[in-house]
Amino acid sequence: MHATRALAEADRLMVVCNSCRYCEGLCAVFPAMEMRRAFPDGDLNYLANLCHGCGACYDDCQFSPPHEFDVNVPKTLAQVRADSYKAYAWPPALSGLFDRNGLVVAVIAAASAAVFLVGFVALNDPAAVFGRNGRAVMAL
Ligand code: SF4
Ligand code: SF4
After folding, report:
1. DSSP type of residue 100
2. Are 8 and 2 within 8 A, CB to CB?
3. CA angle 44, 97, 104 (to 5 degrees)
4. How far is residue 13's CA from residue 78's CA, in Å, rounded to a whole number?
5. Is the CB of 63 under 6 A from ligand 1?
6. Is 12 in contact with 5 (CB distance < 8 Å)?
7. pTM for the full model?
8. Whole-angstrom Cα distance, residue 121 to residue 124?
């Protein structure tokens, strides 16, 4: 019994691939897979994180869709990988951010650029950031 549907699908695919072994020279995933006869969740997470999603095994596979075996190793391992990032994220309360990583990255990038620009100006001309408005000073 696996923790997620993606892990169950990865288990099914690894059994098929372990019988086939056509892709054993493509990347680190297949030699590591061949050292195993069973695929518990921890091992599947490990194998998924060896995959860099190149897609070569999908292109080479004679069992990829529309074949009834429906072997799509890159897609399945990518899902297992994404689930593992959420499962092992620290602090756990922030793991949900992986679902909105585009928004999070955009906000962090914008905030970083703003802090850099304000900091740069403040270092070179503190009055431009912390000083009073020139007209207001003249009015006084
Ligand atoms: S991806 Fe396809 S061709 Fe490659 S080892 Fe698995 S079943 Fe065989
Ligand atoms: S997609 Fe992943 S498993 Fe398939 S050949 Fe590339 S690195 Fe290996």
Report:
1. G
2. yes
3. 130
4. 13
5. yes
6. no
7. 0.76
8. 5
Query: Cβ(51) to ligand 1 under 6 A?
Result: no
Q: What is the C-alpha separation between 140 and 115, in angstroms, rounded?
A: 31
Tokens 């503190």 map to which residue? 126
Count of residues making up the chain: 140
Do 30 and 24 touch, CB atoms closer than 8 A?
yes
**Tokens for 75?**
């897609």
Distance (Å, whole) CA 88 – CA 79? 14
Measured in Å, residue 37 CA sits from the centre of ligand 1 at: 16
10-59 pLDDT, tens per residue? 999 999 999 999 999 999 999 999 999 999 999 999 999 999 999 999 99
pLDDT digits (tens, 9 = 90+) for 115-128: 999 999 999 988 88
- The pLDDT score that the predictor gives to residue 140 is 52
16 Cα nearest atom in ligand 1: 7
